Structure formats: structure tokens, C-alpha cells
Amino acid sequence: MRVVPRWALLTSGCAPALLIAGWVIAGRLEGPAYDPVTQTISVLAAYGSAGFWVMTGALFALGVCHLLTAWGLRAAARAGRVALGGGGVAALMVALLPTPSSGGSLRHGSVAAVGFLLLAVWPVLASPRGGAVPWALRPVPALAASALIGAGAVWFLVEAHHQGAAGVAERFVTSAQSLWPFVVVASCLRHPHGAGSPD
């Protein structure tokens, strides 16, 4: 019997697809005034932007995908599933607390920071102890994923502070965050026993 249901492949696979489609479509609706290199995706979801509903919908869908994937990913350690689900809740909150049309928002920024942190640590927290576990849940790949996501988040902070390529850095880190659950689910489904032993 599989510990990870096949539908988790759909929820985890939809997360990066919906996020990327959201920022591509919203960016096109915004037109040449929007610079994807220097401006964040939060700008696309800000009140009054042309792509507000598209980007807000994509962020909301991302949160739902993470929550459902965390629920179905029973092969992962509970702490990792909670962190992934928390990242999903943070994405929902980011969608519900958009930035204003001008200036920043402390609430939006705080929720986004918590989401970045949870989605950076969940791969390491999801690695179960002992036994033969799927490749993506083993300590070395999990640590590598967390390190890559963490490095991307630091890159984003540096670029945002120096008013550089914050848009590029954010797209890199959010793509990595949204893709790793799919890698983990696929790894679990390819494992000889369908998945490792949950805690």
C-alpha cells in the first residue's frame, strides 16, 4: 500500500505551474511599466495593478497546493509536513494581505518572511529517521534543497536591499520552493515500497 497517494503528484505539480503562469500572465497584463528583473511578484498582486486578480489567485492556489501536498505526504516526518503546510498558510495570507499600490506593507512582508523561512526548512525537517526512505527525503538531498532555497532567500534580501535584481532572485527562490514538494512526491512514488516509513 502506498503511503503517498497519487493525487499528491497533481497538487505538488500544480504549485510551480500555477505560480509561474500567474506571474507571467499578470506581468503581461501590467505591460511595460512592470520590470520583472527589479520588481517583485508582490507588485503584480498589489491593489490597483492590472494583474491583481491573476497573481492573487495564483498565490492562493499555491497555498492550497502546499496544504494538500503536506496532508498527502505521509512518508515525510511530521515536522516537515507541518512546515510545508505552514508555508501554504503563509502563501494564503500573502494573497489575502496584498501590498498597497505604493509603498510597502509590514504585515505582507512579515507573512512573506515567515513563509520563506518555513519553505526553506521543511525539506530538512521532512527527512524521517531510520529505514530505507525515498531519495528526496534522505538527509543529504534534503539538506541540499534547504541550503539552495536558503541561499536563494539571502540573494533575494541582498538584491532587495541594494535595489538590484530582486525580481530575478525572488523568482528563483519561489520556483525552487514550489518545485521541491513535487520532487519529493515523485521520489516517494518511485520508491520500491511506494514511500518510506512515516513517523
Defining key terms:
7 helices, elongated, mainly alpha
β-sheet strand percentage: under 5%
Number of strands: 0
**Broad shape:** elongated
The succession of helices and strands, N to C, reads: HHHHHHH
List the total number of helices.
7
- Average pLDDT confidence is 91
The portion of residues assigned to helices is 55-70%
Gap between N and C termini, in Å?
A: 16 Å
The main β sheet shows up as:
none
* Structure classification: mainly alpha
Spans where pLDDT lies below 50 across 5 or more residues: 194-199
Radius of gyration: 17 Å
A few lines on this structure:
The protein is built from seven helices and no strands. It has about 200 residues and is mainly alpha-helical.
Question: What would you say this structure looks like, in words?
Answer:
The protein is mainly alpha-helical and 199 residues long. It has helices at 7-30, 41-44, 52-72, 78-96, 106-125, 139-161, 166-190. The radius of gyration is 17 Å and the shape is elongated. It starts with 6 loop residues before the first helix and ends in a 9-residue tail after the last helix.
